[in-house]
Amino acid sequence: MDRPLVALVLAGGTGTRLYPASRSDRPKQFLPLVGDRSLLSRTVARASFADEVFVCTREAFASEIPDHAPEATVIVEPDGKDTGPALVYATHRIGEVVGDCVVLALPSDHHVGDGGAFEATMRTGARVAAETGSLVAFGVEPTRPDTGYGYVEPGADRGDHFDLAAFREKPDAETAARYIESGCLWNAGIFAWTPDALRRAALGSPLAPLVEALDAGDPETGFEAVEAVSVDYAVMERAEDAAVVPAAFEWDDLGSWDALERVLDADAADNVALGEALSVDAAGNVVASDGKHVSLVGVDDLAVVAWDDRVLVAPKAEAQRVREVVAALKEEGRF
Amino acid sequence: MDRPLVALVLAGGTGTRLYPASRSDRPKQFLPLVGDRSLLSRTVARASFADEVFVCTREAFASEIPDHAPEATVIVEPDGKDTGPALVYATHRIGEVVGDCVVLALPSDHHVGDGGAFEATMRTGARVAAETGSLVAFGVEPTRPDTGYGYVEPGADRGDHFDLAAFREKPDAETAARYIESGCLWNAGIFAWTPDALRRAALGSPLAPLVEALDAGDPETGFEAVEAVSVDYAVMERAEDAAVVPAAFEWDDLGSWDALERVLDADAADNVALGEALSVDAAGNVVASDGKHVSLVGVDDLAVVAWDDRVLVAPKAEAQRVREVVAALKEEGRF
Prior knowledge:
2 copies of one chain form a homodimer. By secondary structure, chain A is α/β, with parallel strands linked by helices. Chain A has 2 domains: about 5-250, Spore Coat Polysaccharide Biosynthesis Protein SpsA, Chain A; about 255-330, no CATH class. Chain A has helices at about 40-45, 60, 65-70, 85-100, 115-130, 175-180, 195-205, 210-215, 220-225, 230-235, 260-265, 320-330, and strands at about 5-10, 50-60, 75, 100-105, 110, 135-140, 150-155, 160-170, 185-195, 240-245, 250, 270-275, 275-280, 285-290, 295, 300-305, 310-315. In chain A, the strands form 4 sheets. A 5-stranded mixed beta barrel of chain A has the order 6-9-7-8-10. Chain A has a 4-stranded mixed sheet with strand order 12-14-16-17, with no helix packed on it. In chain A, α4 (about 85-100) crosses α7 (about 195-205) and α8 runs antiparallel to α9 (about 220-225). The longest helix of chain A has 16 residues, at about 85-100. Chain A is globular, with a radius of gyration of 20 Å. At the A-B interface, β15, β16, β17 and α12 of A face β15, β16, β17 and α12 of B.
């Protein structure tokens, strides 16, 4: 492949469901949830095979990016409007700076296992993007009918990739089982494309006003003209040439506290802890702290999180409901 | 009554069941669990009708007593051996310093309601102690068949007091109901006696070697010669002349975290909080913190405590089991 391979790491989100570790001024990607380094730092390290690395983030987080990704070039998005506008904008900027290339768009706050499959899979996707001019999604082989993930449905088999038949939103349990039965894959939120391919696809999407404003050199007006929307539904699903590359690496979006069960080692009673915990007749709990010592006695299947001057307790199975806590705190201006 | 009335506040305990608020270097009596002031400070203020106030504590806590009780005289017990040796020793010291008097022995870590009944009841007990030479216990009118308290059984009615028939250890639920049916009272752990009366009774008890050593001016040897034992069973129950004065004030020993339910106001979902808490679909919980903000979502009937760099979560009904956590932490030298 002649084109340079550019990693574009998206680091503008907040990850509110990981409150109180994630806060308005400390988004999820800055947290060391797996190992000693932040998720962002690990993502950038994982992408080190790329010729260049860019990190796209919001103004408020920009000054901290070098702490996590000292070698990366920072792109500041004019406004936080989900992944669609951010990726169209950042890919446009990369095209201006680097010229023709293949962009590999990577979330900054997911967990990927350490096996070698990641780089090989990314290189395959980049080659497909360069050779076919398609927008390429990556579909992770599911290990369970997860209702917290989106799915991608592969279409015709093209050898090292599939046509993209459809994106599927987070399903209920029955639908998730059917998706897996029919060969759907987890949508990893990772994409590969050339700047030109994304530009053409975005022109046929609700993001067209942004593309036109970028052409006119006025990104602020472009962001004002579009809604907050994910790239999956705004662009990928409408694209005439979209592909799926299957991925076999271990992957988790660490979307809520119960996810720690899947990435940390459990004790004999199936408790997992990020930080120090003491369990007495307590089983199946998830503990996370910034160094505080957490004792559990006689409780099962809870998520207990202590960070800074905040504590959260919820049933592990209802970890998604942290959203409700954050909503209440935001109303008080205390998130 | 000619004899001076001396309040003797016992402040040598640790209150381990209130971990993590109570720690090896911060006993329960130093904590502001009700209102803004420590339990010790409130106890001393409550005893301000006495002519003098002494606080008996262990060496490790002695330097902090003036922060809570600036006007009190501090007595340091040679060793921590429960209330029996401490009260015999401190009463002996008071006899040396003050001369003949009535000593009112008060725990420093209990809650007493603000009504005026406390002083009147204490004065009655002191008068009985002075006039009859009895050792006087105080029995609180029970409001429920509590299994966490000891009971005192009144004997013959003597007008303003009863003979003491027996002390009863913490009962099971059925026994507690029977105690209440038969007129038993909660043992408040408060006593009144003259120095001479306690000396005589202690000479007929397992604490006799301590009395003899005190007479010989050698308290250290006296403490080495006796076991750790409560004054209730070592002295009071064996005494020939022991009395009970009934008490009608609100009283709680704040023995474990579930006790906060009884002394704090609840929200609409029956949650109580010492410190800031946010409850979303959570009911019947007890929260306590040193200023940390605690969020609960979807959990019921838990005790959640956050103090310093420690967090504890247990079912409210199993709050006694904090002992098990403390035992494990002590083994690690981390209590």
